[in-house]
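User: I'm writing a tutorial on reading structure tokens. Could you give me a worked example: one chain, its sequence, then its tokens, then a sentence or two explaining what the tokens reveal?
Assistant: Sure. Here is the example chain.
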Amino acid sequence: MTVAQSLIRQHHVMVIDDDETLGKHVAWHLREEGYRVSLVTDGAQALAEIALAAPDLILLDHYLPDTNGTQLLAALREAEATSLIPVIYLTNDGTHQRFRASMNGGADDFFAKPVDAQELAEAVRAQLRKSYARMISAGELEGIPDKDKIAHLALELQSARGRLERAHDDRRNTQAALRQLEGSIDFRVTEETRRLELENAALKAYGYSLAHELRRPLRGIVGFAGLLMDSEAGKLGDESARMLKRIEASGRSMNEFIEGLLSMATAERQPLLRERVDLSALALDIVDSFASSRGCVQVAPGLATDADPVLLRIVLENLLSNAVKYTSKITGAAIEFNTCEINGETVYFVRDNGVGFDMGDARRLFEPFQRLHSTTDYDGLGIGLATVQQIVARHGGRVWARSATGEGATFFFTLTPAA
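And here are its predicted structure tokens:
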């Protein structure tokens, strides 16, 4: 017992519980905290002992052999001598209904069994502090010597300091555990990332080599099919000629697919060589190759940036050719390549008034081999925008789109200047 505890009487806590094992367990913990504890097992005994010496706090079980906690609590609250004694309700019934009934009946706190002894001790301290504060405000401690008041405050201060020290230790231990966990996670993430990068690089290298290997025999198939169609044109039957045309068309389609794959690989593998690029001149040169669409494409003058000219050509070719493709079936097609400023950043855009698309499908736009329109309506492999995203990302930028079905589309992209 501390000096502060020796200067003030021990608080008396009464435990009313017919479960003697649990009651003794709770009583032992409270005595360890410095309280004087009495243990009774039924309501009649409790009322008799309270009449002789009222406790400072009561721990009340709901189920008792001769009554129940609700009835006993009501009796305590009706009597003037016991109406203000703090009561903490204990019960095996932890339902919301039991909680509400006990609190409405006058309980000061509520615990469902099994009870954590440390939490219960904290609740006892809190209720006694509230009771002591009420007595001070009501002037009920005038007769208590000042040394007892000071000792009580010292005891409370010592208890608070102990709780703060425990909280500090818990926080320090938690932080140490978190640092250890973070270190372990960082190591595993680093190792897994390195493994995946190596596997991804190997897979891409294999795909690049495979595409190259497939391209050579495919050229032979397409070439020989074309020769047969020219040299045997008058000798082939209608069915044979039709099948030969299908072979050539399939070969050309496969060749376009392989070229798309190689274009994606080039966008990722080719070293980034930045220089001053006249984007306006580059775009106009690309537009000149669209013989049927030259008049409908407007390119703003003076657009320039520091970037890789070969890769930027791929970006503009894909964006402008898409705009031409998706305005090809409308009257009065209009396509624009220009810049705007968003939050102080230069943003390039290609805008068209074509068929557009549903923004609900926008997340698939930049995924390889994903198409938002049928191949019967518009040809393509679904590789171009994925390639654009790769190149823009390599330049430290980002790409996105805004559209609505039947209202055209605008593709935006940024390019971070070289450091």
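What the tokens reveal: The longest strand covers residues 335-342. The longest helix spans residues 146-231.
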